[in-house]
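hey so u asked for the seq, here:
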Amino acid sequence: MLHLLGPIGNVFLSAALQDVHPWIYLVTLLQTASWWGLIDFFVLIPVAGVAIYACKKWSYPVFLAVAADTVYSNFLAWHQAPEAFPLALLIITVFLDIAFVAYFLLPAVWATYSDPRIRWWESKPRYLVRLLCRVRDREGEKHCVVTDIAEGGIFVKTSKTLLNDLPVQLSVTFFGEGFTASGRVVYFRPSPVPGYGIQFIHSRESARAIRRITRALKLAGVKTRGTVSWRQDLIAWMGKVLRTGKGLVPEVPKRMHENMIKVEFAPRPSGPEEGGKSIGRDQKVA
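ran it, structure tokens below
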């Protein structure tokens, strides 16, 4: 938000430094500045704000380029008109720019921009279901039970072992429509019931199919995992910062099971998860 309002702040600050009315300063700037000067004054800082808000890998080079341009422009303003842009103000602005850049270079902040799995607010709804699924990895086909599904992946329960970070093929039926997709295991939960998170590696066809399926699940009123709205989360975050001073740097969970996940489970009687029989009458969603 501060970046988006940056040009307005710059108008008032520059007008105050030159002891003129902000409107007079703005009109004079529009009449005398070059096209690049206007872009530099009105466009670049909001672009940096959009990049920060987008929280993508490309955000970093855009933000760093704008920060470097801001430092250069302030230095140029001081060099050309030191009486209007004093050295003390230059030092303050450069210090703030460096501090802001240093914050975004912290490993925890960088991880938020580089790893989409950390950006919980981008997560699509996860619909709670209970359906049979077949997962094939390099060890063969394994019967699982899907407990939730989203556009980006599914969570399955099984007593079998799935190998971490390796490609799999999965097949499941929703509302009479067969769905097949490629994926890879990215998460393992050993308790209370063993389960695996599988991230889809979509083709164009599977991406279209999963969007149709999730729309149907939504229209059918299938429950989703509880999520906190961004407003509630923002209020909670501000309270945490004010009470404890923590939260200014994102908390990045440690990555578990870097290599192969191999866990032995006690044998259980054969059931829907192993035998591949129907759950309920028609594999209806919960």
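Residues 6-105 form one domain. The chain has two domains: 6-105, 121-227+260-275.
lmk if thats what u needed
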